[in-house]
Amino acid sequence: MKIAVGVGKNLAIVKAAQKVDFEVILTKSEDELLDLLITGSVDAAVRGSLSASHFMSKIREYYPEVSRASFLELNGHKFLLAPVGIDEGDTLEKKEKIIDNGVQFLEDIGFKPRVAVLSGGRPQDRGRSSRIDSSIREAEQLTMITKDKYPVKHYFILIEDAVSDGANLILAPDGICGNLIFRSLVLMGSMKSYGAVTLGIKEIFIDTSRSQNEEGYLRALKFAEKLAKLRKE
């Protein structure tokens, strides 16, 4: 099993790589990391502490519809949070694609999907601003067009209810909101992160924050290995 990882300024990824029992190839450029992944030279790749913008722009040359979903754990409950790329999930069509790909990923790893769609307010908040109204309206549309395919519910702004109900694919209103939720829960809070699954590609690529600690990088590396093993079964 070979996993490639990117090494930037945060060297916690190097310390994490030294603690696993499988081969890790350290790379110092986004181009090298992508080349190892696309050519099949490795079984999976982890971004580590390299730049996201450069790598994602390169991978979108191969997969224009790519998006990311953080795989998180709270009190034993594991779920995907998407979108978490700040430039992702900004249209209804892109959100629907994220749900399709996210559900497929969950099924591939043995989860029964339960989808939660979030929006910018409670039902009674309609009329407070055009932005809130637009967010709620789009979430309602998304729920309507996906409800015949998957178990999906619109939770409005109540992410806490979505988690307590056991939702395992939580869709934020957009990538900026998703990124802020991730940073609040993981980088400032104590929620476990296994990295972000890259959806819409055939290869296994786990995206990680440049601000992650050694423990978080270690989980991402082990998660990448686990997904690679499942792929080979």
Mean pLDDT: 95
Termini distance? 13 Å
Number of helices: 8
What's the total count of β strands?
Answer: 10
Order of helices and strands: EHEHEHEEHEHEHEHEEH
Helix content: 40-55%
Taking all Cα atoms into account, the compactness measure Rg is 17 Å
- What is the global morphology? globular
Report the major sheet: 10 strands, mixed
- The SS-based structural class is alpha/beta
Strand content: 15-25%
Sequence stretches where pLDDT stays below 50 over 5 or more residues: none
Strand order of the largest sheet: 2-1-3-10-9-4-5-8-6-7
Structure description:
- The protein has about 230 residues and is of the alpha/beta class.
- About 40% of the residues lie in helices and about 20% in strands.
- The chain is built from eight helices and ten strands.
- It has helices at about 10-15, 30-40, 50-60, 90-110, 130-145, 160-165, 175-190, 215-230; strands at about 1-5, 25, 45, 65-75, 75-80, 115-120, 150-155, 170, 190-200, 205.
- Strands 2-1-3-10-9-4-5-8-6-7 form a ten-stranded mixed β-sheet, with helices on both faces.
- The mean pLDDT is about 95.
